[in-house]
Amino acid sequence: MAPDAGIFQHLGWYLTRGGRLYVDAWEPKLPLSYETTGVLAMLAGGDMYRLHLLSVALMSAAVCGIVGLVVILVYDITGDDVAAPLAGLSMFLLPGFAVRPAYGFKAKYLLVLCGLLAIYLYTREYPALSGVAAAASVGYWQAGVIFPLVVVGLAIQQRDVRALKRVVAGGLGFTVVMLAPVFLVWHSVSEMVVQVLLVPLQTEEQASVLARLVAGVVHFKWSSPFVVLGGFGLGHTARCWFRGDDGAVGRTDWWIPVGAAWFALLIFFVDFETGGYTDLIPGLAFVAIGVGIVATTLRDRRRKQYLAAALALVLVVNVAVLGSVGLVFTPVETPGPVPMSDLETTSLPETYGESESVPDVRYIYWQQLEPSACHYRLSVMELRWLDRVDSSIDSRCLGLRTARARLASG
Asked: Where are the transmembrane segments (predicted)?
């Protein structure tokens, strides 16, 4: 189990035991991830092993869904039955993409799945369901806001007022249902605003653009040239959109370069924890579509075969070796009551000195410990926030008024 999976799954279980999100447990994401793991916890009957296996199954299904949606969307755009599967397989250019689901729940997979599903449903003339899926993508991570904007933009471009109303109604309806526990059960609206809106703005990653670029190359390794190739495909799509050319893509496919630009902006300038690769997953979907576009532009069938062969070679190495499937698999033991390893290797503020007695969240998960304080697992972002507002690890989750006063005085 990965540490962040332990956070998602433990919080979901804790909510079924009467815990209140944002009040009894600090968390800078919207509540849908924890409502999802809460449902899984209920299905598991409180069994932590079963909850973990259900989380793994859900993530594995999400990977299959993402790859399938990329294939379908590229085929809808190009009509090319070679380029479409190449685009889908390009999702595995990131070595960890295939194996990460085996380590438990990760919200970014569901963000991508719901976002692509929203576009798919809109193209199939299900605008209300498209709005629901788009809102769900935001519920899993705030950066998914690009997907509601895309489906709304498609409706506006087509001047379809009826579809626009249904998209908005579906999105708002789902948002109301998602936030209902925050208002009616947990009574944590003020704390949610602080953790979901203020915290990401105050604790952003400080790495330079060059450091982020180098980290991306390190994570993709020798599949990096294919990322550049996908970038060329995205550039070709943008050029066809601006010029109105009748080629592999059309004027309604503007969402491809727009979505790619959005996630590139986040990676290079906003939110990219360079020590991990999972922040690259949302943008990877658009890179994969770009690879499919490039394959479509290759009129010579032999060139397509060369591209397919090169991609297959990289994927075999990535999935079989770097992805730790089949050939290499490091045994993982249940961690003891020690701090998470990333707290020991990351440059942190002085607050870290107080966190040495806080056990790894995976230990908390497996031991089914109910936290006695809001800041019970002390992630890297959490420690930065505590240092920013000058709070101790045993303090209560701050409400909006207190947080603003602390930030103003600091």
From this structure: 51-76, 82-100, 129-155, 167-189, 222-242, 254-270, 276-295, 307-329
pLDDT at 246: 60
pLDDT of 323: 55
CB 313 within 8 Å of CB 88? no
Distance of CA 162 to the CA centre of its chain: 31
User: Of 324, 284, 369, 334, nearest to 3 (Cα)?
Assistant: 334
How confident is the chain (410 residues) per 10-residue block, as mean pLDDT?
Answer: 90 94 92 96 94 96 96 92 90 86 93 97 95 97 94 93 95 96 93 90 75 82 85 86 70 88 88 77 93 85 84 79 52 61 55 65 90 81 80 76 80
- Sign of the dihedral defined by the CA atoms of residues 14, 20, 25, 30, in that order: positive
The encoded tokens of residue 260 equal: 């790619």
Predicted structure pTM score: 0.89
pLDDT at 274: 67
Place of tokens 């060329």: 232
Q: Is 25 helix (H, G, I), strand (E, B) or coil?
A: strand
φ/ψ of 29, rounded to 5, equals -120, 160
- HSE-CB for 16 with a 13 A CA cutoff: 22
How crowded is residue 327: how many other Cβ atoms within 10 Å of its Cβ? 10
DSSP code of residue 394: T
Give per-residue burial for 228-253: e unless 16+ CB within 10 Å, then b: ebbbebbebbbebbeeeeeebbeeeb
Beta-ladder partners of 21? 25
What's residue 327's pLDDT? Answer: 47
Domain ranges of the chain: 3-321
DSSP 184-236: HTS--HHHHHIIIIIHHHHS-----HHHHHHHHHHHHGGGHHHHHHHHHHHHH
For 152, the token pair is: 């709304």
Point out which residues pair with 342 in neighbouring strands: none
